[in-house]
Fold:
Amino acid sequence: MMILSGDPPRSRILSLLLLAIVVVLALAPFIFPGAKALNVATKICVFAALVASYDLLLGYTGSVSFAHTMFYGIGSYAIAIALYALGPTWAAVGAGLVIGLPLAALLALGIGLFSLRVQAIFFAMITLAVASAFLVLASQLSWLTGGEDGRSFQLPELLRPGTVFIKDLFGVTVNGRTLTYYIVFVGAAAMILSLLRIVNSPFGRVLQAIRENRFRAEALGYRTVFHLTWANCIAALVAAGAGALNALWLRYAGPDTSLSFAIMLDILLMVVIGGMGTIYGALIGAVIFILAQNYLQALMGAASSAAADAGLPLLPGLLHPDRWLLWLGLLFIASVYFFPTGIVGRLRGASSK
Structure:
């Protein structure tokens, strides 16, 4: 990590935690061969890259954007439309990337040049309006996007579950689904490492200076709008790349999976939980939030049943699985209260004492 970014975790506990997460994700198809567990691991990879790209904006420039899911959706829809229209070929995958990534960057450039000159709250409102308009547009253009139903498509033959490479490797069949997972894993890792390199470059230091005091940065001669616009474009490119990886895994792109405002809220929660302005926090926040999202309800069901069998009062009702969102919210409040700088910030602060 020092070689790639010059920014080590600066905490032994954080280093071990990050190493454990990366190793588990790298070996996920062999450790967790079940469909649900592999879906969760893939979602963690995709959202780690997506949250890291948003952290570049929120954590390093202080810009609050609500259009991030729009770029994520552009990447998803570009892959879906290309594979649907051109057929399940690698050329179609390449066409989707060649169209989707530059389109996301161009839209980010337009939004940045148009709105980054105004104060932060107005930038947030402009991005919210643009994202809402794009969601309506994607839902209405049924001939292109499939409307509310979205677009399903087939993958190239090498990525299909029926394509078997190794019948038995440590008790697991290595097939096209496994290859798709590793494409997602490697793609997400490459994007996160690239962002780490960017934020620890002179460009990244300027972004942090703008975040701390924009007027002073301008007085020192830095073109703040230029730097903020570039950061917006880079974040959009990574978000679109994450969307493309998600579409390849799901073999589907639709409003609920790619453009929903609920995704934007999840991204915000993950950034805050992991720690803003760290990039490492994106991986920590994605792991904690997505694991809670997928397994907290089941754990509460088991705890509620155990409490009922033990004859304990109130607890079976409080721990009922239908109340998992309440407990998820309480966990988030507790994490903000006890870790105001996020988990990464708290671990780094504890190691520096």
Residues 2-351 form a domain with the ABC transporter involved in vitamin B12 uptake, BtuC fold (CATH 1.10.3470). The longest strand covers residues 164-169. The mean pLDDT is 90. Strands lie at 151-152, 164-169, 172-175, 252-253.
